[in-house]
């Protein structure tokens, strides 16, 4: 790496959205802050562009740091024009690295890489999960195959990049998302405010958008599992955090199964209230069949909670069956009920799994570890072999 320690690098970050709510947005924020910190430590330069955030200069606050980004209010033409201006400015410096925070940005990143005259120019595209589990549209797929490196947060998504998107395995890199350090600090507080409506008794917590397009997250399976366990565990409740256009269907399902009083749907919570839900629950469950990673698993483990996940996607990277949680077959409410019942009836098991999960998060999924791995990747790109035409 010493060959590039004195060379100035310019980083252009392309993101779909950084200020909104969701796993993609959180991963983007963590990446943007890491890029900014890496650049400052080496006196490199950066431009951070966000397609869907409000127009003009915006401020992003994370981990005690504040950084600037430029939003484009969904204006694709303005977004691409700004990226090209960043490319021209970078041509006057040494290396130029383009970091695209979503495969949707791959065509722009690949074009910038191909057209730039700076020496050298490389593009990195960050995949998340389900968006690359099916063949991408022509231009996105072509762009993804032309960039220098494509990262994946899990082994499963990395395999899908090779098998489904037909990307050379040598161009892929596993780069797990980290836990937000601000959230880590919340886990150490004892004054977190519980949201109104949080029940007493034994609580299963799930967090995720209740969107019709994301039924794979498995909230309906959790409602069915609660119905199966209700007679055996009289004080059992499910708390489902997150809004969306599928809420009415989920509420109707709870009513049909006669567990409406046992299922609480909470929306619009603050970060502190969400942290309080983790702290107060007994078990965290997300039996999703479509998670490329699942930052919520890390958040739950930070609070020492055992997790129940489907044996699918990126969850198997974080959840080791019998070590820090339990894995169940996807879309199997009966198996889900058995796993949840086992944990709810065994406090010692919950404590043991939760303690191992908390240790895992702090060891392998810290922000500092992510930033160090990203810095290595940036340096490798800056001195890597030239791209094929």
Report on the structure:
With 389 residues, the protein is an alpha/beta fold. The chain has 2 domains: 2-178 and 366-383, Rossmann fold; 182-364, Glycogen Phosphorylase B (Rossmann fold), CATH 3.40.50.2000. 41% of the residues lie in helices and 19% in strands. 49% of the residues are buried. Residues 1-6 and 385-389 have low confidence and may be disordered.
Quick recap:
By secondary structure, the chain is an alpha/beta fold. The protein has helices spanning 23-42, 76-90, 106-115, 138-146, 155-163, 181-186, 219-229, 247-256, 271-280, 295-302, 315-318, 333-344, 347-364, 367-383, and strands at residues 9-15, 45-50, 56-62, 65-71, 95-100, 121-126, 149-152, 172-174, 202-207, 236-241, 263-266, 283-286, 307-310, 325-328. Helix content is 41%, strand content 19%.
The domain tally reads 2
Unreliably modeled segments: 1-6, 385-389
Overall pLDDT metric:
92
Order of secondary-structure elements:
EHEEEHEHEHEHEHEHEHEHEHEHEHHH
Task: Count the DSSP helices.
Answer: 14
Shape: elongated
What is the helix content? 40-55%
Q: What is the name of the CATH architecture of the largest domain?
A: 3-Layer(aba) Sandwich
Radius of gyration: 22 Å
**Main sheet strand line-up:** 3-4-2-1-5-6-7-8
CATH superfamily of the largest domain: Glycogen Phosphorylase B
Task: Give the CATH topology of the largest domain.
Answer: Rossmann fold
Distance between the termini: 26 Å
CATH domain class of the largest domain? Alpha Beta
The total beta strand count reads 14
Beta fraction of the residues? 15-25%
Secondary structure class reads: alpha/beta
For the largest beta-sheet, the strand count, sense and barrel status come to:
8 strands, mixed
């Amino acid at each position: 790496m010493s060959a590039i320690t004195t060379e100035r690098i310019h980083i252009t970050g392309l993101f779909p959205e950084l200020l909104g709510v969701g796993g993609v947005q959180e991963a983007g924020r963590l990446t943007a802050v890491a890029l900014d910190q890496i650049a400052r430590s080496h006196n490199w330069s950066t431009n951070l562009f966000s397609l869907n955030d409000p127009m003009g200069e915006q401020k992003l606050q994370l981990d005690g740091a504040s950084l600037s980004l430029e939003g484009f209010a969904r204006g694709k033409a303005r977004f691409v024009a700004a990226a090209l201006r960043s490319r021209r400015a970078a041509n006057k410096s040494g290396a130029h690295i383009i970091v695209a925070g979503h495969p949707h940005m791959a065509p722009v990143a690949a074009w910038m890489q191909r057209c730039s005259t700076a020496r050298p120019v490389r593009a990195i595209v960050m995949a998340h999960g389900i968006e690359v589990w099916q063949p991408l549209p022509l231009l996105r797929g072509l762009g993804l195959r032309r960039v220098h490196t494509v990262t994946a947060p899990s082994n499963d998504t990395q395999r899908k990049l090779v098998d489904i998107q037909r990307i050379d395995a040598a161009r892929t890199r596993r780069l797990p998302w980290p836990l937000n350090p601000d959230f880590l600090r919340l886990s150490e507080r004892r004054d977190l405010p519980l949201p109104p409506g949080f029940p007493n008794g034994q609580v299963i917590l799930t967090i995720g958008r209740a969107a019709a397009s994301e039924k794979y997250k498995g909230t309906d399976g959790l409602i069915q599992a609660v119905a199966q366990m209700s007679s055996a565990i009289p004080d059992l409740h499910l708390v489902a955090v997150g809004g969306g256009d599928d809420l009415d269907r989920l509420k109707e399902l709870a009513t049909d199964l006669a567990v409406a009083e046992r299922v609480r749907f909470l929306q619009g919570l603050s970060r502190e209230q969400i942290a309080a839900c983790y702290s107060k629950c007994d078990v965290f469950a997300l039996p999703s069949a479509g998670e490329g990673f699942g930052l919520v698993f890390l958040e739950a483990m930070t609070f020492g909670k055992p997790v129940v996940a489907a044996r699918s996607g990126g969850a198997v990277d974080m959840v080791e069956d019998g070590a820090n949680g339990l894995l169940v077959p996807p879309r199997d409410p009966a198996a889900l009920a058995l796993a949840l019942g086992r944990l709810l009836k065994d406090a010692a098991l919950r404590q043991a799994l939760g303690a191992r999960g908390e240790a895992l998060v702090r060891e392998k999924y810290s922000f500092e570890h992510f930033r160090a791995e990203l810095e290595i990747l940036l340096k490798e790109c800056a001195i890597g072999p030239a791209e094929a035409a």
